TrEMBL record:
<dbReference type="InterPro" id="IPR000836">
    <property type="entry name" value="PRTase_dom"/>
</dbReference>
<dbReference type="InterPro" id="IPR051910">
    <property type="entry name" value="ComF/GntX_DNA_util-trans"/>
</dbReference>
<dbReference type="Pfam" id="PF00156">
    <property type="entry name" value="Pribosyltran"/>
</dbReference>
<dbReference type="InterPro" id="IPR029057">
    <property type="entry name" value="PRTase-like"/>
</dbReference>
<comment type="similarity">
    <text>Belongs to the ComF/GntX family.</text>
</comment>
<dbReference type="InterPro" id="IPR044005">
    <property type="entry name" value="DZR_2"/>
</dbReference>
<feature type="domain" description="Phosphoribosyltransferase">
    <location>
        <begin position="199"/>
        <end position="257"/>
    </location>
</feature>
<protein>
    <submittedName>
        <fullName>Competence protein</fullName>
    </submittedName>
</protein>
<dbReference type="Pfam" id="PF18912">
    <property type="entry name" value="DZR_2"/>
</dbReference>
<feature type="domain" description="Double zinc ribbon">
    <location>
        <begin position="22"/>
        <end position="81"/>
    </location>
</feature>
Length: 280
């Protein structure tokens, strides 16, 4: 199948040089509404406006947007107050909403790989100015899922950010040793249990990781359980500072109260087949 082999090659890394090829495979149409757009920018102007960009005031530890600023001092959100994060900040391009959900679904399960540079650009723009040396490491997929999907979406995003910010990329800095079931519907402890031993630093790169500052990259940050497991493994290997970079950040509110949000995030996280079935 021609498309498949094209995507297979593209899946390794989406380069600027490939943009014309991407245009051939996916004529420039808005990824959300399908309207024709002038160039491969991903979205039309109206749909750009539907993305929710995290604003201020925000938690000084995790950048969660807060309804009101503190009366004095620097703001810290309730989850960070209860349990101080191991990371040094979360740079989210967007807050998870219907538009970002659709984009990630198209990118991750719908094979619209041409969206990688668009999403990566938004993510790179949200990263703060970083002092010292930083390395990008994508959240890994288990090899079975990688084989099924043909690409790791986090690698594509991380390589886009690497190019835009001039940062080194350690494509296989982390490995996923076991395939984990859906984390949707599980409590915090159950999620951590499922992930125990699932993620580890790649021994071939432990020298590079020791003492390094890391930007951990993923498409969606849901409960934070997966990124926490990655951070734990990186810290154990001696990593210094760790920032999390994601395209869409799910706020706890959405996880807690929406019946319809749970299967949606589940679909995002887990199943190419479910996506195909949903599309009919
Ligand atoms: Zn549109
Ligand atoms: Zn916080």
């Amino acid at each position: 199948m021609e498309t498949r082999s094209f995507l297979g090659r593209l899946g390794h890394e989406v380069g600027e040089a490939l943009t014309p090829a991407v245009d051939l495979a996916f004529p420039p149409r808005c990824a959300l509404c399908g309207d024709a757009i002038a160039a491969q920018t991903g979205l039309c102007i109206d749909c750009w406006a539907t993305l929710a960009v995290p604003g201020e005031p925000s938690c000084r530890l995790c950048q969660r947007p807060l309804a009101t600023g503190p009366l004095d001092g620097e703001p810290v959100c309730a989850p960070c107050l209860a349990d101080a994060p191991r990371h040094n900040g979360i740079a989210a391009a967007t807050l998870y909403n219907e538009s970002s959900r659709q984009l990630v679904l198209s990118f991750k399960h719908g094979r619209r790989l041409g969206l990688a540079p668009v999403l990566a650009r938004l993510m790179a723009a949200r990263l703060p100015t970083l002092e010292g040396n930083w390395i990008l490491i994508p959240v890994p997929l288990h090899r079975l899922r990688l084989w099924k999907r043909g690409y790791n979406q986090a690698v594509l995003l991380a390589s886009g950010i690497a190019r835009l910010r001039g940062l080194p990329l350690l494509r296989e800095g982390l490995i996923r040793r076991k395939s984990t079931p859906s984390l949707g519907g599980l409590g915090k402890r159950a999620r951590a249990k499922v992930l125990t031993g699932a993620l580890a630093v790649n021994k071939h790169h432990s020298e590079t990781i020791r003492g390094a500052n890391i930007i951990l990259v993923d498409d969606v940050l849901t409960s934070g359980a997966t990124s926490d497991a990655c951070i734990k493994a990186l810290k154990k290997a001696g990593a210094n500072k760790i920032m999390v970079s994601c395209f869409a950040r799910v706020m706890d509110e959405a996880l807690d109260n929406a019946h319809h949000a749970a299967p949606n995030t589940d679909l995002l996280l887990n199943s190419d087949t479910a996506y195909e079935n949903a599309r009919g």
